[in-house]
Amino acid sequence: MCGVVGVWNNAGGERGQSPLREVDPTDAARVSFFSLYALQHRGQESAGIAATDGRDLRVVRRMGLVGQVFAEPDLLALGGRAAMGHTRYSTTGSSRIENAQPMVVRDEALGELAIGHNGNCINARDVRAQLETEGVEFQTSSDTEVIAKAIVAAPGATWDAKLVHALPTLSGAWSLVILTPRALYAIRDPFGVRPLVVGRKGASLMVASETSALDTVGAEFVRDVLPGEILRIDDAGLTPVADMAADRTGLCVFEHVYLASASSELGGHSVYATRERMGEILAEERPADADVVIPVPDSAIPAAVGYARKSGIPFREGLIKNRYIGRTFIQPSQELRQHSVALKYNALRDVLNGKRVVVVDDSIVRGSTGGPIVQLLRKNGATEVHMRICSPPIRHQCFFGVDMARRDELIASKMEIEGIRSHIGADTLGYLSLDGMIRATGATRKDLCTACFTGDYLVPVQLELTKESLERQRAEGSLQRQSSRSR
């Protein structure tokens, strides 16, 4: 998860436009702010913006939602003609201010660099340990700081050279937006696990995690950042710096299922249309005798529309979502998830009473939300509840940027489908097949990362790797240093 954006205003203007130095100097920070709003679904823990006027970097970052973090004085203080922003959902390092992004590091010769990261560097512990032996100090428990410090420590007289040396030493998933006073960089890992796109708004070039962020600020989609590509953006435009692409691509299929906004496009395919196709195929594979099809809003709405259309069963809204409650999937604790389910939905009795209901959801992760939803439907008069899931059972932990759970917390890793059905209290339970899910995306299996469903990881992973790994490493290092000093 996490959302990243970047804005570079061409100082000289182009296409007949006047120079942007004559325009509101807070423009880049303001565009980043509204772009982050469009990516709020990708992270709800903290947000930040870094901006530059060509001389230094200024940063505002705080805990909370985008609308809580920034006020008008912040945007005025940021100023600058280039900016980048980040909204965080923690996958490595706990949810605390020191792990919030953008993070700023400094090279003695080249100056400051601000970095925002979407993904998970799975060899961060090893890279950090090596850098510590070289005397590099760390202040956080985030893999983003490891990436930043690895870039600074790499050989090279330019940021381009340092990036080319440092990034091949990293493994895992990392879509990066990097800002220096002289350039903006957009980078994807060799497999392209997390999305990153380029857009244009007048004389401004933009990058963002999703096309929905471009749409929100009136920017035009230009192209995807390619897997393994390092792009530099400055007054000269877009300049490819390096190509580190792997032999295959591996866009996270869970982006199609849940993570991305339904209004975005992934690899040229509408996310909404893909989810509709998932629902249609699900209706073919797992039909049900019912009176009404309802979604669990919001991400499952397109799939429910597709299921209803293919099955001929009427589509209705049986659950109304409180728009001011965040996505329960990315709340940081199980207790908060359970409370959020109770707060998040109101059921419509006149839609449900006396009806056999097909309820479509995008996934079952821990199994903590399905049961309360089934109970809510029954409480409001549903005579039968047939749960349909528009993805396969999630049986394996994600190490590439989705903190869905440890494997021992995933209900499908411990129970067969009938056991899950009994656990949530549904009359029937049906999942979309792996082949059906992939077919709906318009891609092939070799184009996607499906590890959370299949256990087939893009690169070897350390199964004991957890969100708190770097925090433990940091604590162990601190104890060792104290012990050395005491001796």
Task: Describe this structure as you would to a colleague.
By secondary structure, the protein is of the alpha+beta class. It folds into two domains: 3-250, Aminohydrolase, N-terminal nucleophile (Ntn) domain (Glutamine Phosphoribosylpyrophosphate, subunit 1, domain 1), CATH 3.60.20.10; 269-445, Rossmann fold (3-Layer(aba) Sandwich). It contains 18 helices and 23 strands. The strands form six sheets. It has a seven-stranded antiparallel β-sheet with strand order 3-2-4-1-10-9-11. Strands 5-6-7-8-12-13 form a six-stranded antiparallel β-sheet. It has a four-stranded parallel β-sheet with strand order 17-20-21-22, sandwiched between helices. The two termini are 44 Å apart.
Question: What order do the helices and strands come in, and which of them pair?
Answer:
Blueprint: E1 3-9, H1 27-38, E2 46-52, E3 57-63, H2 66-69, H3 72-78, E4 82-88, E5 103-107, E6 111-121, H4 124-133, H5 143-153, H6 159-166, E7 172-179, E8 184-187, E9 197-201, E10 204-208, H7 211-216, E11 220-224, E12 229-234, E13 237-243, E14 251-252, H8 253-259, E15 265-266, E16 269-270, H9 271-285, E17 292-295, H10 301-311, E18 319-321, H11 334-344, E19 345-347, H12 349-352, E20 356-361, H13 370-379, E21 384-389, H14 411-414, H15 417-424, E22 428-431, H16 434-441, E23 448-449, H17 451-454, H18 469-486
Parallel strand pairs: 14-23, 17-20, 20-21, 21-22
Antiparallel strand pairs: 1-4, 1-10, 2-3, 2-4, 5-6, 6-7, 7-8, 8-12, 9-10, 9-11, 12-13, 15-16, 18-19
Helix pairs in contact: 4-5, 5-6, 9-10, 9-16
